[in-house]
Input
Amino acid sequence: MHTLDLFAGVEHPPGLPFALGEAAWHLPGFALPWAEALYPELFAIRAQAPLRQLSTPGGGRMSVGTTSCGALGWVSDARGYRYTAFDPDSGRPWPAMPAMFAALAGNAAAAAGYEGFAPDTCLINHYRPGAGMGLHQDRDERDLNAPIVSVSLGIGAVFLWGGHQRSDKALRIALAHGDVVVWGGADRLRFHGVMPLAPAMHPRLGARRINLTFRQARA
Ligand SMILES: O=C(O)CCC(=O)C(=O)O
Ligand SMILES: [Mn+2]
Output
C-alpha cells in the first residue's frame, strides 16, 4: 500500500512512480531487482567501517546505526555535521562505493528525470524497531543542484515529507522494501524524516531497515 495523506482513501497502484513535489518522486519497488546483490556488498562495507551511533551537536545520540561508503562519508559529533574522506573511527578511507550502488542510484535518478547523477557518498542508516530520524534538511553538500537518492530495504517505515519550514505539515508516506525516493531541484531542501519504526520482521533482513542515501557532496 502506498497511500498519501493528501489522497486519503485513494490507493496508489504499486510500482507506479508517484510525484511528491515538482522535483521529487517516490519510485515503489525500483530497487527490488538489485536487493539480493546489495546484501553482500553491505556486509563487506560494515566489516570495514562498522556501524556507529553518531553524537549530534545538540548533545544527543542518533538512534540509527550509520556508516558510509564512497570518496566521502557523512559524520556528526559535538562539533557539527560534515563530510570526511577518512572514517574517524579507524583513520582509514571509507570503503569504496560498489559499482552496483552507483548504478542503482544513477538509474533511479534518471528515472526521476535527473541524468548524470554521480554520487560520491552513500550514507548507510540501520534502523531497529523504535529507531527513527527527526525532521531535518540535507544541506551539508557543496552542490545543492544534485538530487538525493534514498533506497529503503528491510522492514517498512513511515517517511515524513515536509515543506521548506520545519513547522510545515509533513505528509506520511509508507516506504517498503525496495522503494526509492528521489528529490532535487525545488524540493532539494525539503524537511524530511522517519517516524520511529514499528516492530516487524523482514524475511531477508530480520527486524531491521537499511536506508542507503546517495548524495553528491563535492561540487
Ligand atoms: O532513512 C531514511 O529514509 C532517510 C534518511 C535521511 O534522511 C538521512 O540520512 O539524511
Ligand atoms: Mn536526510
